[in-house]
């Protein structure tokens, strides 16, 4: 269905904010005004955002978690960025695999099962979206989700 995805993002931020604050992390959101509706499932996207925010908080010791939602041409982009420990470049391609966890020592320290991102990727792709990760060790990580708004759909909205 067509939904205001920014509401889903905002509520995920509200739900996780206290955990960021508990760790002394800043949590910020930038949502571009007048975004179009996105064709997706609100419950699934809530799960996606919760997972990404959970990771961002878990793998960040200091700094800022920022969530952004913007539109560029026919694409709505949502990003969740942190200033955490980062992911080595050669491992970036594996993080979306089930049970994959970066470095065993790290896993012991942080807990978790390694399923979160596999579920996230499945959910996003089920809904016709795409997800990518960018990261630098010691600097932070950014996840970007994209949903295409087809030009036809946009026109229909404008005509309403
Ligand atoms: P869970 O199933 O509880 O989510 P998990 O967090 O270990 O466990 P994923 O969410 O799938 O599993 O993430 C896979 C691995 O990718 C993590 O173990 C972690 O090493 C790395 N990772 C994920 N997100 C981040 C992040 N924001 N910063 C640094 N490393 C990350
Ligand atoms: Mg996780």
UniProtKB/TrEMBL annotation:
Localization, UniProt: Cell membrane
Keyword rRNA-binding: no
Molecular functions (GO terms): ATP binding; phosphorelay sensor kinase activity
Gene Ontology cellular component annotations, sorted alphabetically: plasma membrane
Principal subcellular localisation of the protein: membrane
Keywords: ATP-binding, Cell membrane, Kinase, Membrane, Nucleotide-binding, Phosphoprotein, Transferase, Transmembrane, Transmembrane helix, Two-component regulatory system
Superkingdom field: Bacteria
Coiled coil: none
Ranges of residues in domain Histidine kinase: 1-151
Name of protein: histidine kinase
